[in-house]
Amino acid sequence: MSLNVSNLTVHHGAICAVNQVSLAVPTGGLAAIIGSNGAGKTTLLRALSGLNKPTSGVVNWMGQTITAEKPEKLVRMGISHVSEGKSVIPELTVRENLELGAIWRKDGKEMKESLSQVIEIFPRLGERISQRSDSLSGGERQMLAIGRAIMSKPKLLLLDEPSLGLAPLVVEQIFQTIRDLTTQMRLTVVLVEQNAMGALKIADLGIVLNLGKVVAVDHAQALIQDPAVRAAYLGY
Amino acid sequence: MQLLNTLLIGITAGSIYSLMAIAFVLVWRSTRVVNFAQAGMALLSTYFGYEAVSRLGSFWIALPVAMIGGAIFAALVELILMRLLVKHASSGPIAGVAPIIATLGLLGVIKSVVTMIWGGQDLRIVAPISNNGFTINGETLVFSPLKLLVLVVVMVLLIMLSILFQKTNLGLALRASAHAPEIARLSGVRVDAVRTLGWALAGAAGAVAGLFQTVNGNGNFSPDSIEFSLLLVSGFIAAVIGGLDSLLGAVLGGLFLGISISFVLMYVSSGLFFIAPFVILLIVLFVRPQGIIGVKAGRRA
Amino acid sequence: MHKSKKQSTHLPLFILVGVVLFILSNFIEELRVSQGTTIAVYVIAISSIILLTGYSGQVSLGHGALMAIGAYAAAVLRLEFNLPIILCFVAAVLAAAIGGLLLGMAAARLSGPYLAGTTLALAIGLPSLANQFPILGGEQGREFKVGPPDFEPEVVAAAEPLTFFGNVLSILDKLQTTLATGAWPGASPMSTYKWWFWIAALAALISMWTVRNILNSAYGRSWRAGRGNEVAAQLAGINTARSKVLAFTISAGIAGLAGALLAMSIGTVSPSAFPLALSFSLLTGAVLAGITTLGGVIIGSVILVAIPEIADVVAHRLGSSESVTTNLPGLIVSGLLILTVLFVPNGPVEQHRARKAKHEAAHSSTKK
After folding, report:
1. Which of B12, B116, B133, C95 is positioned for an S-S bond with C73, CB 3.0–4.6 A?
2. Is B93 in contact with C111 (Cβ distance < 8 A)?
3. What domains are defined for chain A?
4. pTM score, two decimals?
């Protein structure tokens, strides 16, 4: 197992947003965390990338304890987080947003390679490379956000609601890209999604979160078949 | 001829205000604080420069000494005062005014300490070249080699700053941290360090503004010189005119303010020296509340 | 219980404090009496800041300038028209309030640092206007001695306007004489200092009482609502812009009163009496008082007056040089300002209250 979380608890002031969560994702695995609004999905993800400080519990990545490390350090350890809501910086150009992802990497040559790799994955970004990123469409912004994360050569990719606010066709495209990236780049991915069906379809592992607690863990395909999960989260 | 004169004087003074406005903008962008101690820092740096001139005898050594001194001091302020402030006073009814009060307090501390060390009397920094006006067709301008020098140096610094911001990774980190600190952190930028760097750059810009404001005047300065109060107000107003978030805006704001004041003094009344910036500010706020380079959020945020 | 608390205006308490101060003033040294006057001036000025910043959430670094408006209004009316003091005060309040109204209209469009910077520009710019108008006396200002009527017969004698207006004036002058000669039996002899202390203390008590009741009125509540969350307050039907302008106007009027008192009690008015440092001191006093605690203004004012003396003693003990001695008070005030914001951000009174409330809450929960 490359990512191991045990008994993680995170508080927002007095509210316990994540309560004693344990989970494990193998190398190269794509885990989808689903659950309703306010289930603690985002908080959990933010605790993994160091944006939120856990109250207790342990996060272990490739044999190293990374609990409560700062995000800027975790990036250097190969953990990239794409936060909620198309996390691009509108004041910067597409190129600058991408370069930002590789800013901590010292050598310029590797950075150029990563840039051409990202453009290969998302040709649309290549076409708009010099535009300010607030001129992009919603889907393109999400591609840019993921592209920025890839620029930092991640081994673990944390994605927060990449489908949020996108048209159904674009959502499908983004999910497919995530699946392809996972396989091609041997990434480990934790995907937090409101769109449970879409996420479970591409995931290896499904985790259901409710009121801050893990209520179900299983193979993604098995969860899709689970009548309780279907009733509660898949809507049929 | 008088028109040209007025314009050139305005541009020179304005370029100094631009530097000060840049200092305000750099600090605002990195920590969302308007640093009212900025003029105090410029004053302190001017004393650093004075010490360097009197020991080493050259204005051209004093300038970088003052800049480095100003940068280090500003960085320390961010590291100590601002971080404590974020820790202790970021909630409750005081939160909105705490940074204002803290930087004002710092202004007072700097002024008192500076006066304790160097005394309250006028000290003098001699300009590196003549402040006697150019002569064209037998007519003597107020615009002098010194003013030209000030203008050139400020422009060179502005160009260097814009290269830093637009063409380097450090500049990218500075811009990213200013606009979206969280995304910057997730991309591996050490935002805390970048903030400190923003303050340091502001300290250096303020140091140049302080030295030039002094030599562009009569060369005398003291902790109570009105030049520094004026620098504080003009720099702030120039930054506000420019939208407080934009470096280009700060430069344009400074030039606009400098030229406007110069024209008011020449064609209305020279007694309006201190009230003119205030009136210009009010006019700008009513006519174009989002500044020259408008920020969408406006000033209420 | 809540209701009775809201309705009480604490009038008897204010009257009692006034009587005590009056008696005290007859038995203490003249220096302390004159410091008492300064404290009273600060109390008034800081109350105006607390009303503005603590309750309406607007920052002003320009209250020194508003005080200057009040001071110049009072001085010009006294010198040019020889109006009785009380009318000078009224005029000072009105003049500063008009200034505050204009500034407030600009301020309602601004927030936080923008407002602070704008008022700062005013604080630096306005006093210099004195040079533009000869009637204001330029850089060295204008002198005018105003004391108890017995002490200044020439001032009273000069006041002989005609008809109805003149009659009103003479009645007011008689009132002043009664006040001036009504000294306590066995007390120290009458002096200008004492006389000014009485007036200042009376003005301070009246303004504190007024501010207190304004803050507890519907206006005060709407300010607090606006300070907490402007959008929510707007949704609740409060016109936040208007309520902000009103707060600025009232606050400016009170500052104008403080300015007039300051100028008249020292007998001169000049730009140098209203430097930027004065505006900063007021803010410091308000922060030391606890920006939302009106009761704290007395603490804040006393500290402001006491610091120079304490600094003097400290500097002499240490045998410091002159430049250190003269700058120590400034250093202490500024240092205190920073430390207060960092470590007692809501003021000592509020801090104590919060701690007590916490303690009581803990206590009552254990009882259960």
Report:
1. C95
2. no
3. 3-234 (3.40.50.300)
4. 0.83
